[in-house]
């Protein structure tokens, strides 16, 4: 089973010509410097951007042939984007709205993300890391075919990042939903991803198992913290 992405898109000052194939389920990280086109790929995959040419195939289903609302792609942005006037519980319920039957168990997800004690709270009272955990939970409860996350930790300070990474790693270990994860932080990629898609200036310059591609590109996988290292 695999996730296959092909994209061609031209902005006035930038062109993306991207193609990769990754095992699914699994976490596939798009990694590369700021401005190399990572968010463009995610926007095209999720349908937020109407790309010049895009083809996304997941387990034989051509998602890009479906209108965005029927692709069932869960999206998590850099900033949580929770509904501020809804409690955590109601934000999560929003994810359940119209969710078809699927492998995600709401109780297990809430437990894995460590957000059970936050259900009555409102987004403004949460830390950045808590907010992101709720945003990820909400996206998952909609039973997405694919979860895409665009630098979900980039807005957090180092302490919050360290706090949320173990939750993401635990989730990764039990999740059967394929994930496309954008980051320009090697530590996150090393900790969370199975497959690394290395990008530069709108092109893919390497794709394969994280260790292999990182070694070939001479990227340091050394981690600042303990468990979960590859
Ligand atoms: P990354 O996520 O890797 O930092 P992006 O995909 O956001 O990179 O951007 C890649 C390039 O595409 C940048 O040069 C950016 O200015 C350009 N770009 C992104 N979105 C638009 C847009 N809506 N209109 C014009 N140019 C854009
Ligand atoms: Mg980006």
From TrEMBL:
Q: Give this protein's Gene Ontology molecular function annotations.
A: ATP binding
Q: What is the lineage of its organism?
A: Bacteria, Pseudomonadati, Pseudomonadota, Alphaproteobacteria, Hyphomicrobiales
Q: Coiled-coil region(s) at which residues?
A: none
Q: For the ABC transporter domain, which residue ranges apply?
A: 1-226
What family does this belong to?
Belongs to the ABC transporter superfamily.
The UniProt keyword set, sorted, is: ATP-binding, Cell inner membrane, Cell membrane, Membrane, Molybdenum, Nucleotide-binding, Translocase, Transport
Q: What is this protein called?
A: Molybdate transport system ATP-binding protein
């Amino acid at each position: 089973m695999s996730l296959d992405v092909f994209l061609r898109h031209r902005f006035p000052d930038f062109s993306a010509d991207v193609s990769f194939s990754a095992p699914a389920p699994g976490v596939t990280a798009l990694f590369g410097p700021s401005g190399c086109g990572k968010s463009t790929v995610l926007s095209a995959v999720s349908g937020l951007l109407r790309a010049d040419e895009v083809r996304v195939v997941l387990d034989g289903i051509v998602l890009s042939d479906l209108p965005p609302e029927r692709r069932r792609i869960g999206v998590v942005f850099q900033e949580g984007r929770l509904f501020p006037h809804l409690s955590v519980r109601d934000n999560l319920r929003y994810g359940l709205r119209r969710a078809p039957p699927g492998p995600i168990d709401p109780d297990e997800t809430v437990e894995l993300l460590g957000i059970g004690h936050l259900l009555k709270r409102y987004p403004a009272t949460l830390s950045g890391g808590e907010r992101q955990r709720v945003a990820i939970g909400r996206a998952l409860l909609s039973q997405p075919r694919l979860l895409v996350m665009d630098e979900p930790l980039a807005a957090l300070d180092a302490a919050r990042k360290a706090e949320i990474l173990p939750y993401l790693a635990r989730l990764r270990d039990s999740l059967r939903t394929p994930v496309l994860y954008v980051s320009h932080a090697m530590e996150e990629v090393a900790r969370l991803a199975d497959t690394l898609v290395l990008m530069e200036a709108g092109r893919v310059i390497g794709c394969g198992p994280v260790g292999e591609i990182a070694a070939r590109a001479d990227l340091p996988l050394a981690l600042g913290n303990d468990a979960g290292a590859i």
